[in-house]
Amino acid sequence: MMQELLLQNLPALLLAVPMLGAFATPLIGKASGGARNLWAVAIMLATLAVAVLLTAQVLSTGTVVYTFGAETPDLTVPADSGGIPIRIIFTVDAMGAFMALAASFVGLGVMLYSFASASRSTGQNGYYALLLLLVVGILGMVCTGDMFNFFVFLEINSLAGAALVASRVDKGVAVEAGLKYAVLSTLGGLLVLFAIALLYGQYGALNIAVIASRMLFTPLDQIALVMLLVALAMKAGAVPMHFWTPDAYSMAPSSITALLVVASQASLYGVFRVVFTLYGLTLEYATIGWIIIILGVLSMFVGVTMAIPQKDVKRLMAYHAVSQTGYMLLGVGVGLAVLGNQQLLDTYGVIAMEGGIFHIINHAMYKGLLFLTAGAIFYRTGTRNLNQLGGLGHSMKWTMVFFIIGALAIAGIPPFNGFASKLMIYESVFLFNPLLAIIAMVVSILTLASFVKVFHSIFMGPRLPEYADVREVPAPMIIGMALLSLLVILFGVFPQEVVDLLITPAAGALIDQGGYIASVLGGA
User: Fold this and answer.
1) Burial tier of 169 (Cβ tally within 10 Å: 0-12, 13-18, 19+)
2) Half-sphere exposure of 238 (CA within 13 A, CB side)
3) Continuous segment of H or E residues that includes residue 66
4) Distance CA 458, CA 377 (A)
5) One digit per residue, pLDDT tens: the chain, 524 residues?
6) Gap between the Cα atoms of 349 and 424, Å rounded
7) What residue segments make up the domains of the chain, in order of their start?
8) Which end of the chain lies in a sparser environment, N or C, as judged by fewer CB atoms within 10 Å?
């Protein structure tokens, strides 16, 4: 009975578990720091377990529609409402479950890493509580079926992220970065809220499926679409709205930066959900697809060219995060551009989308890993300046190995996961437009060159006298990096299994707007 009850309420538990953990963490921390740490990791393990069970349920039974306060959406519909569900509804399809699984796994790795990396800092009770709230914001964004609740979880994401970016203070520099993140997030949130107001004013509904079923693509709808795309593309760190990422990513604790990457991808998920599910059939596919493609190409090229001259290793990685976001936009943009042509969609459009979606989880793993290695280097040396580093490979061998794995993955070198998703993007995009594929490959070459330089600057050469006593980082940090490294390798060695199990259903869920609507409205 209890097991059945848990399985019936997995979407609610996915949010309730980390939310309970967040609010209880400061209380437990007042009693014991060790108990707080055990509590925090137990909460993340439980959250990951719920995400795994929910994903399995979605893959086996289809889209899960969960209504808060009632058994089904139908039970909440007044007779004179025209069949519109009025309660808060979570609609978890294969795409949402995929994102929740990725976020939960990265969150667990970050939590383990933080036990050592944050041990020297004050305010650890608040740190772990905010970390869990950031996870809540991410999971809520990818699971909700309601536009206003999407906005609420976006704000939770933004507020927790801004506080964590500023948490180290660092003579006011981190506070400045956190303030910039907060201001831009507030502007983005306001745009999202205004867009929701325009949609609500026309259709009298906040549920995504209801709005999608009634969408007329009026001038007000078009204005709302622009607002949503601008706000969410900015939160995702896409060029030309990427200007917050270098400061926020470089000044946040490295463990938090790894999770901020996933938070940005939740906004990217929002972009895809808006264009495929909310607007869907009413869009001019080629036009919107090319807009997303152009954002992707700009992000790839500007990100990598800005990364090459950087001397701060985390700032360099921040620009590479912008660049990698471009691959996701490019792949999904190509799929959207040919969505109205079934032959082209079957030939290469679906593969392009699958490559872009696959790159989301791959990027979360290898970019999170790279930021954790940067944090390990700072933990032992106290600097992120490449000109002041060198010879650390003699004493930080595990960190060096993990860095190599992450660097080869981001550059798209086999047999690591970045190669698998990039190859899908190259092959499919080449059939769409060869020039775009060539640009993507050139960006990968520049990425490899950049990380070869970083590797040489940090790990090669003789041991510098000032780092003679440097040793490897504590075990929790190694375990956190090892978890992400394991997935980077497994996803690269067995890419087809991952694509068949997770990626193909996720891409299919995005394309099938009618199935999403029918899952909530019962075909109405």
Assistant:
1) middle
2) 27
3) strand 64-67
4) 9
5) 677 778 788 999 999 999 999 999 999 999 888 899 999 999 999 999 999 999 999 999 989 998 887 666 553 444 444 455 567 889 999 999 999 999 999 999 999 998 888 777 778 889 999 999 999 999 999 999 999 999 999 999 999 999 999 887 666 778 888 888 899 999 999 999 999 999 999 998 899 999 999 999 999 999 999 999 999 999 998 888 888 888 888 888 888 899 999 999 999 999 999 999 999 877 788 889 999 999 999 999 999 999 999 999 999 999 999 999 999 999 999 999 998 888 998 899 999 999 999 999 999 999 999 999 999 999 999 888 898 898 898 899 999 999 999 999 999 999 999 999 999 999 999 999 999 999 999 999 999 999 999 999 999 888 888 888 889 999 999 999 999 999 999 999 999 999 999 999 999 999 999 999 998 887 54
6) 11
7) 1-276, 284-493
8) N
Q: Hunting for tokens 């899908």 — which residue is that?
A: 424
Residue 450: which residues within 8 A CB-CB, separation 6 or more?
304, 307, 308, 316, 320
Give the tokens for residue 217: 């693509």
CA 296 – CA 116 distance, rounded (Å) = 36
Is the bond leading into 78 cis (omega within 30 degrees of zero)? Answer: no
Question: What HEC string does 297-316 produce?
Answer: HHHHHHHHHHHCCCCEHHHH
Rounded to whole angstroms, what are the CA distances from 317 to 245, 250, 372?
Answer: 10, 8, 11
Sign of CA dihedral 42, 400, 261, 293: negative
pTM, to two decimals: 0.92
Tokens read off for 146: 């309601």
Task: Provide the residue type at 187 as one letter.
Answer: L
In the structure encoding, which two tokens stand for residue 295, read together? 């954002």
Contact between 301 and 344 (Cβ < 8 Å): no
CA distance 207 to 14: 20
The SS3 of residue 433 is coil
Which residues are CB-contacts of 505 (< 8 A; sequence separation ≥ 6)? 58, 59, 94, 98
Which tokens is 473 given?
């980082």
Question: Which residues have a Cβ under 8 Å from the Cβ of 45 and sit 6 or more positions away?
Answer: 108
**Residue 78 burial class via C-beta count within 10 angstroms: exposed 0-12, middle 13-18, buried 19 and up:** exposed
Alpha helix (H) ranges present in 308-349?
Answer: 313-337, 342-344
Q: What is the rounded CA–CA span in Å between residue 398 and residue 379?
A: 14
* HEC readout, 117-157: HCCCCCCHHHHHHHHHHHHHHHHHHHHECEHHHHHHHHHHH
Q: Closest Cα partner for 115 from 46, 48, 35?
A: 35
Between CA 199 and CA 220 the distance in angstroms is 8
